[in-house]
Amino acid sequence: TRLALYIGGVDFEDERITPQEFGEKKAAGAFPFGSLPVISVDGKMVAQSVAMLRYAGKLSGLYPEDPFQALLVDEICDACEEVVVMCV
Question: What is the pLDDT of residue 88?
Fold first, then answer.
């Protein structure tokens, strides 16, 4: 997501936290689904890395407007996510 925003020239704040900060914020209920990564959009916290990647792609102009081309991009994104899940 960071890379898509950067490549697309979209300004964003890259905030990284320590494991201790994560534990504290998680305990306070700061993260949807209790996990990272998250993105804040207009003060609303959103999770799920592939959803965030698609959002960044749309903001940056990297995500196709054509529905079939978007479907092909989604296919690759979802296949990559499945590979990551299998490897964990």
Answer: 83
